[in-house]
Amino acid sequence: AILAAQEPFQSVPAVCANALAPIGVCGCVCAPPQTGAAVQVGFVELEMHLLGILIGGSCFGVLAVALHVDVIVHYPETSQLLETCGRLRLFASSGLSGPGVAAEANKTDTDTFLARLELPDQHLYESTSVAVLADPDNVARRSDACHQMCMDLGQEGREVQLGAFEVIERLDKMNVIHVWPTFCQQDWSEVKTSFHSSAINRTVHVVARVPAAVLENRVRRPSAKMPPVMFRLNPEWYWPRGGEKYNTWHQLMVTGYMQAMVSADVFIEGVTWKSWDNQPIYTLEGVQAKCGSCAPELQFVCKSWELHGNSMYAGGNHSFGSAKVFFGELYDRAMPAILAQLPARSDDAALPVGVWGYCIGGLAAWNALVSRPDLFNIAYLGSPAMDFNCGHPFDAIRGMNWTAGTRPRIYIDAGMEEGELMDNQTLLLFQKLQDKGLVAGQDVFYERAEFGTHQASSFLRRTEKALLALFGANSAGRSKRPSVSQPFMSVPVLGLVLALACFACAVFFLGRLSMSRSTHSSAFACAPLLSDMS
C-alpha cells in the first residue's frame, strides 16, 4: 500500500501527509488548507489506491485459489514396460476425491508429469493419501509380451501403482508432492560384492537384495527418497535362507505395507554358525575383566559382567576394537556396488543407511551408529549385548549429536524369556535415548517379545514388527506438514464472512471518497471519520 501510494503523497503538503498515516487505523479525514485541484486529486488517488489494495487483498484469498494438490510424477518415458505394454496415460487420485475422480498428468519435462487434484475446501487441514494410476494402451496390454512382463495387468480399468501411497498428513490450501511410482515389476534382484577388510584382516562378502520398485523406475530422486539400506550382521547364524525371508518382506513392499528397502547380508569368509572362537565382535575397545568404579544405574550390569559375562569373550580371534574402522570400510567398499543398482541422486544429502544385528550383532549395530554417525543413521538392535565391558557402550550416548545432521531411527527389542539382565539393559538404553531427545514411537522404538528367547526362530518372529516400525507405510513416504490448529469456522463460512467484509470496505471507502470530494475548508483539520461533517 505504501508503494502504491507514494506518487499521490508527493502532491500533498508535508503536514497533511503526516496526517494521512492514520487513515484506516485511527479513522481521520484530512482536509488541507487552501485545498487546490492537485491536492484534491492526489488525495482521491490515494484513497482509490487504498481501496483497490484492501478489497483486492481481502478477497484474493477467498476467490483466487481452491484447495488443491499438485502431484509431480517422476516416471521414465522410455522403459521396458512402455515398449511392451504401449503408451501410458498417467493419472493422480486422492483418497478424498471420491471413486473415479482423478486428474490426468501432463508432461512438463523429461520423465516428469504434473497432475493437479482439486479438492473440496472442507478437507482443508485433513489428511489424505495420493496414488498414481496408469492407463496402458488397450491393444498393447492384451499382447503376450505385455502379459509376460506384467502378469497382474488386467484387461480393464487403470493400473494402480505398486507400493505405499503418498500421504499428506495435513492439507494446506496449496500442496505439492513428488512421487516415483511403479506399476508392474515385482521381482527383486541380487548384487554381490567382496572386499578385504584391514580392520579385521578378513575377506568380507556382501549379498544385497534390491527391491523391484527401483528397478522399474530409475528416475533421479533426492537422497531422502532412496530406499534405505540395512546391513545385516551374522547371517550365518540367523539367516541361512536369507532370500526366502526377503521374499516375505518384499511382498509387503509391493503391496504397500512397507517402504522399499535393501537388505545386505554381511558374511565373513571362514566364519560359520559354529565359529564363535573365530567370530569378529565389532567393539570400540578391547575386552576387560574387572569393572572398577561403576555408575549406580549400571551396578546390575557390572555385577553380572564380573561374575560370568567377561568369560564369554575370553580367548579366540574376535578383532576387538575394530568397529569404527570396519564400518567405515563396509560403507566405502560395499555401498558403491549397491548404489550402482539404484537410481541416481539429485543431491548430496545423507542416505538412509543402517546396521541390523542380534546379540553381539546388536552391539555392533549400536557401535556403527555411534562411531560413524556420518554414514549410518538407522539401527535395529535385537537383544543387544550392551553389558559388554561393564556397560561401556552406554557411554557413547553422551556424545550423540544430531543437531546438524539426520536424526537416527533406532529399534530395540528383547525377548521376555531372555532374563532380567537383558530386560533391564534394553529398557535403560531406551530411556537414556529419550532423555537425550529422541522421541519414542518416532525416533526410537522398544518392544519386549512375548515368550521371546535368544534363538533364531524367536528373532525371526520379531523381525516383521521391527521392519514395519522402521519402514512401514505409516512411518515412511509421508509428506510432513507443520501442525496447524483447526480453524475456528469452516472454509465456506469464513469465505462468506470475508466477502461481506470486502463489501463493507467498498461501501465505506466509496463513502469516504464522496465526502473527500465535497469537503472544503480554509484551515487544516483532522476529524474522526464518523463525526458530524456538516
Q: Which terms summarize this structure?
A:
534 residues, 6-stranded mixed sheet, 33% helix, disordered N terminus
Quick take:
By secondary structure, the protein is α/β, with parallel strands linked by helices. The chain contains 15 helices and 20 strands. The N terminus and C terminus are likely disordered.
Largest sheet: 8 strands, mixed
Q: If strands are numbered along the chain, what order do they take across the biggest sheet?
A: 11-12-14-13-15-16-17-18
State mean pLDDT (0 to 100 scale).
Answer: 79
Determine the strand fraction and express it as a percent band.
Answer: 15-25%
Span between termini: 30 Å
Q: Residue share in helices?
A: 25-40%
Query: How does the helix and strand content classify structurally?
Result: alpha/beta
Shape: elongated
